[in-house]
Write a structure and sequence with these properties.
Layout (H helix, E strand, L loop, with lengths): L13 E2 L13 H10 L4 E3 L9 H10 L3 E3 L1 E8 L2 E8 L6 H11 L1 H15 L5 H6 L10 H10 L6 H9 L12 E2 H10 L3 E4 L9 H14 L3 E6 L4 H14 L2 E5 L25 H4 L12
Parallel strand pairs: 1-2, 2-3, 4-6, 7-8, 8-9
Antiparallel strand pairs: 4-5, 5-7
Helix pairs in contact: 1-2, 6-7
The structure holds adenosine monophosphate and manganese (II) ion (3 copies).
One manganese (II) ion binds next to loops.
Length: 297
């Protein structure tokens, strides 16, 4: 980032994970860019779920506002019975293999949402599909988040967390198992598109220590290079735990708020605790993929 901003060191405010109306966030890519900049973000990425449709808009807005920018996406992947999220940074958002892959995962979402709605109807909650759809800025990307917002709005639950706990997680009415990309496909699409594959919020998966070890080994074998350490999905104890995992595995560390909506997300854009100094950072490995802001004047 020579000549464009502050010296490129640990003091740089980096936020490499968030969502817009193109997936399950409530702000447009442009509004998100403004919020990130207002909150002090210097290097930013938009990582919508299974969608690259907001990237060009986010990049344009970010560079105009003087931020450095990395392209991004968060891919849903099935791993046994688990769903994992793989963040791809520095990808070419027009790469045919990546775009075809994203289209293939998205097509199952509407059918899944209709089945979720039928399942909720059996539990006495009717009209959930239509209700959730009203919250989906992108109908191709209807997600559990949109159901959660609808069920809060209609008074079924007090907050999205309660919706997930009571309805939208395995074993609960409203949960419908779904086949996403394979882990191999997700990593391969990202790599072919010139990007870096990063395991998102590892603390969120209900894996045993042995299962987590196996996942990390497989991820590395496939060509995965990064792991999120500081994320809005981790507790302070998990910041420390996954910093240690990064050291032990040699995966580069990433950080991102996972911001979805004002008042809904635990950490606001740009409001992340600092990353441990000693960890190799994903953005150092991605230096040649960073887009730099336009020079003033
Ligand atoms: P989907 O891709 O449709 O399975 O939806 C997954 C999304 O649900 C995640 O990206 C989060 O935004 C949201 N989510 C998952 N668990 C929770 C939770 N406990 N509370 C609030 N949002 C959640
Ligand atoms: Mn989400
Ligand atoms: Mn995620
Ligand atoms: Mn996310």
């Amino acid at each position: 980032m020579k000549g464009h901003g502050p010296p490129y060191n640990e003091q740089v405010n980096v936020d490499l994970h968030c969502h817009s109306t193109i997936s399950d966030g409530t702000l447009t890519p442009e509004t998100l860019a403004q919020r990130a900049q207002a909150n002090g973000v210097e290097l930013w990425a938009l990582t919508d779920h299974d969608e690259l449709g907001g990237v060009a808009r986010a990049q344009e807005a970010a560079l105009d506002l003087g931020m450095h920018f990395l392209t991004g996406v968060e891919i849903s992947a099935s791993y046994g019975a688990h769903t994992l999220h793989i963040v791809g940074l520095g990808v070419d958002p027009t790469h045919p293999d990546l775009c075809a892959g994203m289209t293939s995962i998205r097509t199952g979402r509407e059918r899944r949402a209709r089945l979720m709605s039928e399942s909720l109807a059996q539990a006495g909650i009717t009209g959930a599909f239509e209700g959730a759809l009203k919250y989906a800025g992108n109908p191709n990307l209807i997600s559990r988040t949109h159901f959660a917002r609808h069920l809060v709005k209609t008074g079924v639950c007090r907050d999205p967390n309660e919706v997930f706990r009571r309805y939208l997680t395995p074993g609960k009415p409203g949960f419908v198992p779904h086949q996403w990309a394979t882990l191999a496909d997700a990593v391969t699409w990202i790599r072919r598109a010139g990007g870096m594959a990063i395991l998102a919020h590892p603390g969120r998966y209900p894996l045993t220590a042995n299962q987590e070890y196996a996942l990390l080994s497989e991820f590395k074998t496939l060509g995965g290079l990064g792991i999120e350490v500081i994320t809005g999905s981790h507790s302070p104890a998990e910041f420390i735990q996954y910093a240690q995992v990064a050291r032990e595995t040699g995966l580069a560390a990433s950080c991102g708020s996972d911001f979805h909506a004002p008042g809904e997300s635990r950490i606001d854009l740009g409001d992340l605790p600092a990353m441990p100094d000693d960890l190799p950072k994903v953005w150092d490995l991605l230096a040649d993929r960073i887009h730099h802001p336009r020079l003033a004047g």
